[in-house]
Design brief:
Layout (H helix, E strand, L loop, with lengths): L1 H20 L17 E7 L2 H8 L1 H8 L2 E7 L4 H11 L6 E4 L2 H7 L6 H6 L2 H4 L6 H7 E2 L2 E2 L1 E6 L3 E5 H6 L12 H11 L17 H13 L16 H15 L13 H9 L5 E4 L3 H4 L12 E4 L10 E2 L1 E6 L6 H10 L3 H9 L9 H4 L2 H6 L1 H9 L4 E2 L6 H17 L4 H18 L5
Parallel strand pairs: 1-2, 1-3, 10-12
Antiparallel strand pairs: 3-11, 4-5, 6-11, 7-8, 7-9
Helix pairs in contact: 11-12, 11-20, 12-20, 20-21
Length: 437
């Protein structure tokens, strides 16, 4: 009987602990009975890579004894969501997926990961394996703020069937310069078949996100000087943006509704064979195999984006940031590293995740290159890729530039007027927030 009473007492004690552990809301971060006794909340933007990673969470949970709660939200609002939660100090998330590294660093929301990296297994973390562009994007003032999980270096997608029908070879002789790409687009454009020579758009944050920095730099200019004064309205910048606007207004090689086409709609046009040329992110390679886009299977090939005076392919990326108010910083750091390793990237890519590798060992893998030709293109671009300028007010500056470029595209004002006005207003914005103090 004594033994039975003892067992019953232990059972009741265990049940009591369990009820305490799982009572309360998300903000309490209640401890579980065993293991690390924590719940790790991670927020990803809605993408195949995040969902495929979440399917592997049981492996991480078993290794570190934690429960991982996976959350996802649209890429269009994720950064606002993160900063609102941070400002309200809700403690809703421990790790977040974002491109807004400057905002995270400047606000203090992103934790400096250097102390964790310094005491971790260098071979496992493999800092040197991270692509140089991704390293530049994920660090500030020598501090690692995030581990990269998405590489948005731009590539030029070409529809080889359309090229062949026009007497050109997209695989062996793709256009190299902007002028060559324009010449190809003129041959490829077929208004009767609703096939654009060059898929491009003028809506949303697309122009500022990559067109302005990439085209301006390629034409020999720069976006900002060393003190963050806008200089995208230089002679080179104006020539670059005039070329960009002329694709729609003068040469008419774009979709007829290009003024109302954003980045997502460009992708849809590419993957439904409504155009022959499109500069886009690596992840579109995976998208083409979705059942919704059966028309372009085996038709697409990729090449380096066109150049003019300089070769400076545009790049961007997303990383996993450990929030500074997490109550489990080391485990959160471990998650960020784990989700960015080359082994995991290969696994999720093969399972249908985005083709956006951030590690040299992934894009240099010849077996991966065979199955995913975009990796060879990324490998050939190498360290020439250059990030778009990012800072806490990037979105606001982008809204200003996009507003006036769209006016130029619609013919309301000239390109020179658009860029001069935008530069003046961006400078006032940055002055107001103390960028020049």
């Amino acid at each position: 009987m004594k033994l039975i009473r003892t067992l019953l007492t232990l059972l009741l004690f265990t049940l009591l602990l369990s009820s305490m552990a799982f009572a309360g809301g998300k903000g309490d971060k209640q401890e579980a009975v065993t293991g690390e006794g924590k719940v790790l909340d991670v927020l990803w933007h809605s993408c195949p890579a995040g969902r495929e990673t979440s399917k592997l969470h049981p492996e991480f949970e078993e290794k570190y004894g934690v429960k991982v709660n996976y959350h996802e939200i649209s890429h269009t609002i994720i950064n606002q969501k993160i900063m609102l939660e941070w400002a309200a100090k809700t403690g809703a998330y421990d790790v977040v997926n974002t491109w807004n590294i400057d905002g995270m660093y400047g606000s203090g929301a992103g934790m400096n990961l250097n102390p964790f990296i310094e005491k971790d297994d260098a071979k496992y973390v493999a800092i040197d394996d991270i692509l140089p562009t991704m390293k530049e994007l994920m660090t500030r003032d020598g501090k690692w703020i995030a581990f990269p999980v998405r590489n948005d270096t731009r590539l030029m997608y070409l529809n080889r069937r359309m090229f062949k029908n026009a007497g050109m070879d997209a695989d062996n002789a793709p256009p190299v310069t902007f002028e060559e790409t324009l010449a190809a687009a003129k041959k490829l454009h077929n208004q009767d078949k609703d096939e654009a020579g060059w898929i491009i758009g003028y809506k949303g944050n697309y122009p500022y996100g990559w067109v302005v920095p990439y085209w301006t730099r390629t034409f020999g200019g720069e976006v900002y000087d060393s003190k963050w004064k806008p200089i995208f309205n230089s002679a080179e910048g104006k020539r670059a943006m005039q070329f960009y606007i002329n694709l729609f207004r003068k040469h008419k090689v774009t979709l007829p509704d290009a003024l109302n086409v954003n980045h997502t709609e460009q992708t849809t046009a590419l993957l439904t064979a409504r155009g022959a040329i499109n500069i886009n992110v690596p992840g579109r390679w995976a998208d083409q195999f979705k059942p919704a886009f059966p028309k372009v299977k085996d038709d697409l090939t990729v090449a380096a984006p066109p150049r003019e005076k300089a070769y400076r392919p545009p790049s961007g990326g997303w990383g996993l940031v450990v929030l500074a108010d997490t109550d489990m910083p080391e485990i959160a750091y471990k998650y960020a590293v784990w989700a960015s390793t080359s082994e995991l990237q290969k696994r999720i890519i093969k399972k249908g995740g985005d083709c956006n590798p951030t590690r040299t060992s992934v894009i240099a893998d010849t077996s991966m290159q065979k199955d995913y030709p975009i990796f060879k293109a990324l490998y050939d671009i190498g360290s020439a890729a250059e990030p778009s300028p990012k800072f806490a007010e990037s979105n606001q500056a982008g809204d200003i530039i996009n507003k006036y470029l769209r006016k130029a595209a619609s013919g309301e004002i000239t390109v020179d007027q658009a860029l001069d006005t935008a530069a003046e207003k961006v400078e006032l914005l940055l002055m107001a927030v103390g960028k020049y103090d």
